[in-house]
Amino acid sequence: MDELLREFLTETGETLDLVDVELVRFEQEPNNTGILDNIFRLVHTIKGTCGFLGLPRLEALTHAAEALMGHFRGGRPVTGEAVTLVLATIDRIKALLEELELRQAEPEGNDQDIIAELQRMAAVVALGPAGESRVAAAATPAAADKPAPRQDSGRIASHSIRVHVDTLEHLMTMVSELVLTRNELIEIVRRHADSEFKAPLQRLSNVTVELQEGILKTRMQPIGNAWQKLPRVVRDLSAELGKPIDLEMQGAATELDRQVLDLIKDPLTHMVRNSADHGIEMPAERVAAGKPERGVIRLSACHEGGHITIEVADDGRGLDRERIRSKAIALGLIAEAEIEKLSEAQLQRLIFAPGFSTAESVTSVSGRGVGMDVVRANIDRIGGTIDVKSLPGLGTSFSIKIPLTLAIVSALIVEAAGHRLAIPQLAVIELVRARDGSEHRIEVIRNAPLLRLRNRLLPLVHLRGLLGIGDPGEAATAAGFVVVTQVGTQTFGIVVDRVFHTEEIVVKPMASRLRQIAMFSGTTILGDGSVILILDPNGIVQAVGTADGSRRSGEEERPVERIEEPASEPLLIFRAGSPTPKAVPLSLVTRLEEIDAVTIEMASGRPLVQYRGQLMPLVPAGEAVQIKATGTQPLLVFSDDRRAIGLLVDEIIDIVDERLEIELATSRPGLIGSAVIKGQATEIIDLTHYLPLAFEDWRGWKEGAEHQGPRSVLLVDDTAFFRDLLGPVLRAAGYAVTAADSAQRALTLLEAGRRFDAVVTDLDMPGMDGFELAAALRGNPETAGLPVIGLASLISPEAIERGKRAGLHDCLAKLDRAALVAALREQTVAIGEAA
Predict the structure, then answer these.
(1) pTM for the complete prediction?
(2) Mean pLDDT for the stretch of residues 163-181
(3) What is the number of other CB atoms lying within 10 angstroms of the CB of residue 603?
(4) Any bridge partners for residue 664, and if so which?
(5) Which residues pair with 608 in a beta bridge?
(6) Which 8-state DSSP code applies to residue 417?
(7) Rounded Cα–Cα distance for residues 730 and 624 (Å)
């Protein structure tokens, strides 16, 4: 194909996708001249290029559309019929482009049907209905419809080049091979501790990592590229179904691997269509329920660690429990006696079963029984998970978690009956050593092996028994290492014989004869040259029959004692400024680093370092901590979202598993109090004292907090970082703390009969936010009097007013410790006086 034609097809395809989006926006904002000018320029550019390349059919189409939009630029009113006609023209242009790409020549024929409609519409817009009679006399639009010259004064020169995707695929393959070679060299050096190759190998490893990250960036594309067609989809569905629907999109700039992006386009489109058809009610039904007439579908995406979280939510009627129940029984998915034992979450997950649909009739939109099971299968194929949460009358939210890339992943290398396997680290929560007589031990209840892990029992899968290797009877009772794994909302343990290390592995496809085995997602080559299989946690869940709420008898996660206080938690012990050891929950620490002191720079009087592509401020963990001038400087790296700070310390001592009990509270800046850890008095640092020293918008906590009596607080936050940050502080103030990772989880605890003295909730959460949680609590007579305190990163008058309407007792800055403790004291004292 001619290179000029190839470039035209590529650029025009991108331009038309953008025109689709802009036209839908323009219909909603007809007075926005900026949008109209942008659409006009895009269409004008296409028309000009068609004339240059000698494509008269495409040129005539775009000219007619340009003439119609020229009237809108002149101030004529915009009609939905006119926008629909222009969208139909865009669809015709796309079809012609497909033919052009296939034949490398413009197809014969003309488009007089749609051109005549465009001319008629132009006359109607320009002259009113009387103008229709003049269309027949006008063969073509008048050289007077020619747009004004394009103004390019504000245009920024392009700094990008177009690279064929095959080139990027080849580069990624080469980097993958480099990673394998690096791993092989590391394995050799491990066997020779005093090898002279250790230092150059470390440099090679660093270069490999940077090269890998660089190549990955070239493959990354904004997820918004997969969303471009959705505004048009929602607009068309809104007209077809007779439901006014708005589509809100957040995080469109979030980037992920192009290969993953291509694989999620169809599932996302299906879920948006599903929300419009099944989720959003008809306008009369919404008004009767006290809702706005227009329904809303929200699409959001964000980075979380090494994966992307995508959420598709609507404010519709929610999932119909009774309809799901009756449909599941009718399809034979589950017996009527068994369905009564399912929790609400397990019942909702039945919608992912093959052939399941709650549609009453087959339409052009839904009802064919090919739906969420296909969505889940596509997401499983790329190593992702999908979960659903729904509240009657409030809406439904689908949460998808997918890896950033499929080419190179971090994995835990384990062994079962002499065979090594890899488990993707994305699914691993923690690693536990189980043995008889220990706190973490394996028990058998109703013939099902379970792990007693802190405050609950987790179902176990023995890898030897699952794979049919070794002695099955021995596998059923053997102790060993337990890899605690999460798939969706299900948590279970995989029992293995040995654990080696984590390693970046290159994912190779399974052999064709083995692809039907769901427990494996691929193969990889280790540093010693051996080929091993990669386990798929989703496939393991399916293999043991725990998916879609069909857990085996005895495998339900069940509380053992109380769930608010873990028996122990990992703590990082270090020294900073004094001989007395200091500690911080390891869950708050993103990474432990030792940087070269010469890389520390000063800017605006503050120390900082260039770290992973950004400037990271450095804060001493105490006044007596000195920044080293030579040698290595130990750092504790803490991060939230895209910001990170480095806490300068003198020495990193150890990581211990210990119950964190603050025995002596303190008002000293930077400290929460003191605790006994491994028999030694240890100071627990107050991380939120240091956060605002690095970033001013991370608001600091004020000094002073009085010790409170033992009260029970439910802490609700979707971010583990802030749950782990606030939990020790509240415990230091004398509160028993139960943490919940979502508003839905909080409601589940309360509906199960749990009692609390107060609720502290983040206001900005996906799905059901803190305002909606407060409103739900107010609407329930059993929880209507429960004090609810809202936390936000930024408090605005609008948020305070909205909080009052929702029933919040107080609305505070997230890191204002004194205000939080004071508000809790005020509310719990009021409860005591009322009692």
Answers:
(1) 0.46
(2) 78
(3) 9
(4) 674
(5) 601, 617
(6) T
(7) 28
Q: What b-and-e string marks burial along 340-367, b requiring 16 or more CB atoms within 10 Å of the CB?
A: eebebbbbbbbbbbeebbbbeeeeeebb
With the CA atoms of 806, 811, 817 and 823 taken in that order, what torsion angle do they form, in degrees rounded to the nearest 10? -70
263 with 301: CB under 8 angstroms? no
Identify residue 525 by its one-letter amino acid code. I
Closest C-alpha to 460, from 437, 443, 435:
443
Element housing 345 (H / E) = helix 344-348
Q: Any idea how long the chain is?
A: 835
pLDDT digits (tens, 9 = 90+) for 617-631: 898 988 788 888 888
CA distance 142 to 123: 12
**Number of H-type helices and E-type strands within the chain:** 24, 36
Pairwise CA distance, residues 19 & 87, whole Å: 9
Please report the pLDDT score of residue 834 as a whole number: 46
Q: Look at the block and give the residue holding tokens 């030897």.
A: 464
Starting at the edge strand that comes first in sequence, how are the strands of the sheet with 520-525 ordered?
498-506, 408-416, 419-424, 531-535, 520-525
User: In the structure, what pLDDT confidence band is assigned to residue 27 with cuts at 50, 70 and 90?
Assistant: confident
β-bridge partners, 295:
245
Asked if 534 and 520 count as a contact pair (C-beta separation under 8 A), the reply is yes
pLDDT digits (tens, 9 = 90+) for 260-294: 788 888 888 888 888 888 889 999 998 988 888 99
Positive or negative: CA dihedral 324, 325, 330, 332: positive
Rounded to the nearest 5°, which phi and psi values hold at 26? -65, -35
> Do 458 and 467 meet the contact criterion of CB atoms below 8 Å apart?
no
DSSP state letter for 678 = T
Least confident stretch, 126-140, 574-588, 684-698: 126-140
First to last CA, the chain: 82
Q: Residue 14 is which amino acid?
A: E
DSSP string computed for 244-310? -EEEEEE-TT-EEEHHHHHHHHHHHHHHHHHIIIIISPPHHHHHHTT--SSEEEEEEEEEETTEEEE
Residues 6+ away with beta carbon under 8 Å from 228: 17, 18, 20, 21
Quote the distance between the C-alpha of residue 153 and its chain's center. 39
Query: pLDDT confidence of 828, banded at 50, 70, 90?
Result: low
Q: Are 480 and 496 in contact (CB under 8 A)?
A: yes
Q: How far is residue 20 CA from its own chain's centroid?
A: 26
Q: How many CA atoms lie within 13 A of 412 on its CB side?
A: 22
- Dihedral sign for Cα atoms in the order 403, 409, 412, 418: positive
List the one residue out of 447, 544, 553, 533 whose CA is nearest residue 493: 544
Q: How far is CA 397 from the centre of its chain?
A: 13
**Average of per-residue pLDDT across 546-573:** 46
Q: Which residues have C-beta within 8 Å of that of residue 145, sequence separation ≥ 6?
A: 66, 67, 70
Which spans in 547-636 are helix H? Answer: none
Highest average pLDDT, of 349-353, 517-521, 524-528, comes from: 349-353
Nearest to 572 by CA among 684, 484, 690: 684
